[in-house]
UniProtKB/TrEMBL annotation:
Positions that bind substrate: R136
EC number: 1.11.1.24
Record domain Thioredoxin: where: 18-173
The UniProt record lists the keyword Cell cycle: no
Organism for this UniProt entry: Geochorda subterranea
Molecular function as annotated in GO: thioredoxin-dependent peroxiredoxin activity
Reported function: Thiol-specific peroxidase that catalyzes the reduction of hydrogen peroxide and organic hydroperoxides to water and alcohols, respectively. Plays a role in cell protection against oxidative stress by detoxifying peroxides.
Extra facts: The active site is a conserved redox-active cysteine residue, the peroxidatic cysteine (C(P)), which makes the nucleophilic attack on the peroxide substrate. The peroxide oxidizes the C(P)-SH to cysteine sulfenic acid (C(P)-SOH), which then reacts with another cysteine residue, the resolving cysteine (C(R)), to form a disulfide bridge. The disulfide is subsequently reduced by an appropriate electron donor to complete the catalytic cycle.
Cited HAMAP family: Peroxiredoxin
UniProt protein name: Peroxiredoxin
Active site residues of this protein: C59
Alphabetized CDD domains for the sequence: PRX_1cys (cd03016)
Disulfide bonds: C216-C222
Keyword Oxidoreductase: yes
């Protein structure tokens, strides 16, 4: 009986986690730029990322990095949104400190999630890492408000901004051109064609490889210029 109770308790306490392809959990939250609803951002891509706490070393380096590259996200129609379980007052003081110490103004909103509502909806609380702070979770949400990618980092490891931008470039290319992208892909490099679904499709592809300018390693793996 004790085992059953412990199992039930563990399931109750387990963080919720949106899955890739799910609608992004809706929220309305207080931020450093006023109230924000996820629905306000419909039509934009969103990078929602959490950090453990304000005035912490790794988090500070991340915010400086995101702020310095905010225009690159904006060019991709991406809205950055930060989050931690700190007050708006703490956020504002921290942002001012970042501007004073690093000469960088953070242009995107930061959610003050004191009641952990948003953090719990997105599975950002991992009890073994800390019960009152969020891990480094990052969600890429597309312009239809669907979760397209999820990244989790331990508290001790700062994120790679280049990789976040690369994933967005890949997803937007996939949507636009109906292709896939290979390992280590970057914009301008060849993309992968969807594999044939029938024998007729396979034969047609093999017959037009040279004419279409495809580079085929085998019938199931063909690349073309982006």
């Amino acid at each position: 009986m004790d085992v059953l109770l412990e199992t039930a308790q563990a399931e109750t306490e387990a963080p919720a986690l949106p899955r890739i392809g799910d609608p992004a959990p809706p929220f309305e939250a207080k931020t450093t730029q006023g109230m924000l609803k996820l629905s306000d951002l419909a039509g934009k891509w969103v990078v929602l990322f959490s950090h453990p706490a304000d005035f912490t070393p790794v988090c500070t380096t991340e915010f400086v990095a995101f702020a310095r590259r905010a225009e690159e996200f904006a060019r991709r129609n991406v809205q950055l949104v930060g989050l931690s379980i700190d007050s708006v007052y703490s956020h504002l003081a921290w942002l001012r400190n970042i501007e004073e110490r690093f000469g960088v103004k953070v242009p995107f909103p930061i959610i003050a999630d004191l009641d952990m509502t948003v953090a719990r909806r997105y599975g950002m609380i991992h009890p073994k890492e800390g019960t009152t702070s969020t891990v480094r979770a990052l969600f890429i949400i597309d312009d239809r408000q669907v979760v397209r990618a999820i990244l989790y980092y331990p508290m001790s490891t700062g994120r790679n901004i280049d990789e976040v931008l690369r994933i967005i470039d890949s997803l937007q290319t996939v949507d636009r051109e109906k292709v896939a992208t290979p390992a280590d892909w970057h914009p301008g490099e060849p993309v992968i064609l969807p594999p044939p679904q029938t024998q007729a499709d396979l034969q047609a592809r093999l017959e037009r490889v040279e004419q279409a300018g495809y580079e085929c390693k085998d019938w199931y793996l063909c690349l073309r210029k982006a």
